[in-house]
Amino acid sequence: MGLHRQHAAWLLGLEGLALLRYGAGDDVGDGFLEARLDEVRRIVDAVDGEMPLVDIGDISVRDGYAIWATTYDGEDNPLFEPEVAAIRPLLDALPLGRIADVASGTGRHAGYLAERGHEVIAFDLTAEMLAHGSGARVQADLRSLPLPDGSVDAAVCTLALTHLPDLDAAFGELARVVRPGGTIVTSDIHVLSLYLGGVAHADGKRMPASRWFASDYIRAAGAAGLQILTCLEPRWPVMAGGGGPLAQAWCPVATAAAYREVPAAIVWSFRVG
Questions:
Q1: CA distance 159 to 163
Q2: In terms of Cα–Cα distance, which of 198, 215, 197, 199 is closest to 207?
Q3: Which residues span the domain enclosing 69?
Q4: Within this chain, do residues 19 and 111 fall inside the same structural domain, yes or no?
Q5: 39 and 120, same structural domain?
Q6: Residues 118 and 237 in one domain
Q7: Half-sphere CA count of 240, side-chain side, radius 13 A
Q8: Is 257 part of a structural domain of the chain?
Q9: Are residues 12 and 132 in the same domain?
């Protein structure tokens, strides 16, 4: 059975990243180059030349997460582990107060903050995601929050900013609703991990995924008058089954090399001026 050319392109990309590590002198073990070339030949040979290259199509963030809501909590999302490990100490350091969890999804961080005694208001664009949470929940776009100026002590926005076409409106709105001296904590998938298969999909279609670099966050935060307190780039852990079933079936060693020491997420904390 032939391999669809879109899948082949991704697998060959993983092989290419692994070969770049070899070319840069990383310790990848004996026989690494020969094994990678053998796999590349196998993948190329498996491409079904009779199968047309079909665009998988795009889906909006609202529609995508509405579909994803039914399985989001139960999915084994490998991004959660490094993101949670990096962000939870920042959440633990927040003084007790009123917190807006913006783009909260099903409320994985909102619930944690509520358990720690905070008054939490959860906002999300998608009603289906909010239906799986608890406590105060409001449907709203993170760029237009129904909150007065300076009305919360902190805001949290996780794994959402990549879906926006620009960062300025989001940072401006977060800075508006948090009181002076308060804290904003954000996380997002790292731009490098988007190329490792990290672009979110729902119903087989791509959701929007902008490629934000650290300098983009720094510029947008500065324009909003925010002071940078922390920037973390947690790496991917060594994972069994990394890259998913397709990568494990075709190139598990190359996949492990491609993911090794690559940042999984980017996590920031800011003080409102």
A1: 9
A2: 199
A3: 61-242+267-272
A4: no
A5: no
A6: yes
A7: 0
A8: no
A9: no
Q: How many CA atoms lie less than 13 Å away from 108 in the CB half-sphere?
A: 16
Quote the CA–CA distance of 255 and 247 in Å, as a whole number.
7
Q: Identify whether residues 40 and 140 lie together within a single domain.
A: no
Contact 8, 47 (CB under 8 A): yes
Query: Are 28 and 141 in the same domain?
Result: no
- Three-state DSSP at 152 gives strand
C-beta of residue 123 within 8 angstroms of C-beta of residue 99:
no
Q: Which of 205, 245, 212 is nearest to 66 (CA)?
A: 205
CA distance 159 to 108: 12
The answer to whether 184 touches 272, Cβ cutoff 8 Å, is yes
Q: How many domains does the chain have?
A: 2
Residues 91 and 39 in one domain: no
pLDDT, tens only, 71-121: 887 667 899 999 999 999 999 999 999 999 999 999 999 999 999 999 999
Distance of alpha carbon 155 from alpha carbon 245, whole angstroms: 36
User: What is the value of pTM for the model shown?
Assistant: 0.93
Q: Which residues pair with 155 in a beta bridge?
A: 100, 184
Q: Are residues 96 and 191 in the same domain?
A: yes
> What is the spatial distance between Cα 1 and Cα 244, in angstroms, rounded to a whole number?
20
pLDDT, one tens digit per residue, over 30-81 is 999 999 999 999 999 888 766 666 667 899 999 999 999 988 876 678 999 9
